[in-house]
Structure formats: C-alpha cells, structure tokens
Amino acid sequence: MNTKRRSFLKSSAAAGAFGVAVSAGLIAPRAVLAAWPKAAFESADTNEAISGSLGSGSITESSDIALKAPEIAENGAVVPITVTSKIAGTESISILIPKNPTPLTATFKMGSGAEGFVSTRVKMSKTSDVLVVVKAGGKLYSTKKEVKVTIGGCGG
Amino acid sequence: MAKSIKVRAKVKGGVTVVKALISHAMETGQRKNKKTGEKFPAHFIQEVTCSHNGNNVLMADWGTAISKNPYLSFKFSGASAGDTLKMSWVDNKGESDSVEAKIK
To answer: Does A112 touch chain B (CB under 8 A)?
Structure first.
C-alpha cells in the first residue's frame, strides 16, 4: 500500500513538473499536440473557444494579418480561406467562424521554420464573419472578414 | 491506407511550399439522415502533423468545420530539394494515416 502511495505521489509530481515545463515552453510541441482541445472545439461561444484553445488575454486587431476569403460563397461547404501573418514570431493561426454551431474551426501551430501562412477550405453554415486569431510572442492578434453564404455547409 | 493523402512540396528561393489533399468524410455530426431523422455520427480529422527531418513544421488541430476532403497549404524554410516530408493525420475515431513525399 505504501509503495502505491509512493508511486502516486511520484506521478503527480511528474505531472506537475510537466505542466510547468509546457507552460514555460520547454517541451517540444509534439507532446502538447496530444491534447486536442475538446472543450474549445465543442464550445458554441466564440470567446470561450478562443480562451480554451489559445489562452485568455486581450486581443488586438492587427493589419499585419491578411485574410483572403471570398465576399460571397456560393457553396458554404467549401469556402477557401488563406491567411498570411506578417507578425514576427507567429506561433499559431486559428480560424473561427462565430455563427457556426461550433465556432472554432482550426488551429495551425507553426513549428520550426514555418512561415505565417496557411491555406485551407472550411464549412460555413450561414453568412458570418471569419475571424482569424494569431498568437505571436504570447499575445493575440486578430482580423476578420465577412463572407456571405448563399447555401449553408452543414447539411439541412 | 496510405492513399488518403496527396502531398506536393516544392522549394523555391529557400521556401518550401507544401500543398496537401486528404480524402476524408469530415462528418460534422450535425447532418441528418433524411429517411430516419437520425444524425450521422461525427467523423473528422482532429490532428494533422507535418514534419521535415524529424522537426515538426506544422501541427494543426481541426474541428468539424474543415471541408470534406480537406485541402491544406503552408510554407516553411530550411528544406532543400530531395528531402523527405512526412505528413500524418488522426481522426476522432482513432483512425490515422501518414505519407512521405520527396521535396522537389
């Protein structure tokens, strides 16, 4: 019984140390990747989704993020989105669609050598802003653009 | 099952442009079967990892709102032609796939 208690204490101490190391950025992102932020992806609230996946903090609007998206999307199931971040030290780019059932669409984490550029295709249930949040140097920057959707992309 | 990913990577001026297409249903869990009224269970890619020489160059967490048969493009520096690029994905059912491609 005592040995069990020992190992329990050990493992909890290790977990604590791990948490500290992650927050200090000591451990390679691969280890962090294992934790897919379920709550953030399932949240129906945009702010909750941002704080759950990127951490809370004030968001500054920035003109250094270029968001390329169509003004009118004929088919909401396939909306091409391209994001270019000119902010130095871009760590991650997140795409959120506030009017989708779950706003958080994707978070792209930049690894070694990756540039602040990402292009993908998303689904939009109806006309909405597309919100891009860029994390750089521990701070959050954002930009947004409205996309008009004529046919929704979430089935019917 | 290594056929679900198509990757092209090309170096130009020191920057590698990666373009990838993954074939996957990306079911949101919101769509209803019109005959039975039941919802199709969610089935979507959660994590995509792309690495070069053992370094992760891009890690993506995806939700259900990424389009069916996802397209992904990104850029990184530090690779040269002939290097191998590895890309893999894991979905919410634990299925996964990975592919290696030569950078041109």
So the answer is: yes
